[in-house]
Amino acid sequence: MLGEVPVRLLIVEDDDAIAAPLLRALQREEYDVDRVAAGLPAIERVAAGGVDLVLLDLGLPDLDGLDVCRRLRADGFEGGIVILTARAGELDRVVGLDVGADDYLAKPFSLSELLARVRALLRRSHRPAVAAAVPPATAGPAAPAGTARFAVDPAARRAWAGTEELSLTAKEFDVLALLDERRGTVVTREDLMARVWDENWFGSTKTLDTTVGRLRQKLQDAGAPIRLDTVRGVGFRLEDAAPDA
């Protein structure tokens, strides 16, 4: 099915109970999959070339997964990195994304959600042959029909730019869905923090700025005909972008 351009994934996970079923599931999707159980072998395997996406555990026996992620990016790896971890703290998620991860899933996670995120990340690859080789989703709704080039489905928790499904973290989707629900109007920072995080949130709002920054970049990368504006001192506004002249 994948023809002459195999899509190769690397699982970096030391727990056999997690790695084995994940390996089988990805192989059923017709990906070529390698697995290593520590950080240094992962860095060496990626350096050897041919890896398109890394599924990276943080709790590795030799290096912290965040350090592995940082080193992969420092070494020039441009493929996708999805962090899989039992660490549920907001700080860990923010740091993981800041050091170069594209997505973050907390254990236990839904296998179907993981596969959907893998597909979406690979479609965003800058290698056309890789994007063309990604297996289609085996289940779930197709992108909305019609002429709309941007759509958000809150019930399915999915969003599209054209025919491309956006790969969004849970918080990124929640922010996007709320802004889309009120498209064209300003949503205050306080409202976003209360609705997406918690009304009793007392921490820094830097996490909101980080989430919005990543979301804005993903919309731009996908060519979505939508603009996410910052209204200084108030909040954010999502509105249709002006068509090209």
TrEMBL record:
InterPro entries listed in its UniProt record: CheY-like_superfamily, OmpR/PhoB-type_DNA-bd, Sig_transdc_resp-reg_C-effctor, Sig_transdc_resp-reg_receiver, WalR-like, WH-like_DNA-bd_sf
Protein's GO biological process: regulation of DNA-templated transcription
Entry-annotated residues carrying 4-aspartylphosphate: 57
Ranges for domain Response regulatory: 8-122
Protein name listed in UniProt: Response regulator transcription factor
Gene Ontology molecular function, alphabetical: phosphorelay response regulator activity; transcription cis-regulatory region binding
Record keywords: DNA-binding, Phosphoprotein, Two-component regulatory system
Start and end residues of each OmpR/PhoB-type domain: 140-240
Protein's organism: Nocardioides albidus
PROSITE patterns tied to this protein: OMPR_PHOB (PS51755), RESPONSE_REGULATORY (PS50110)
Residue ranges the UniProt entry marks as DNA-binding: 140-240
Gene Ontology CC: cytosol; protein-DNA complex
Membrane-traversing stretches: none
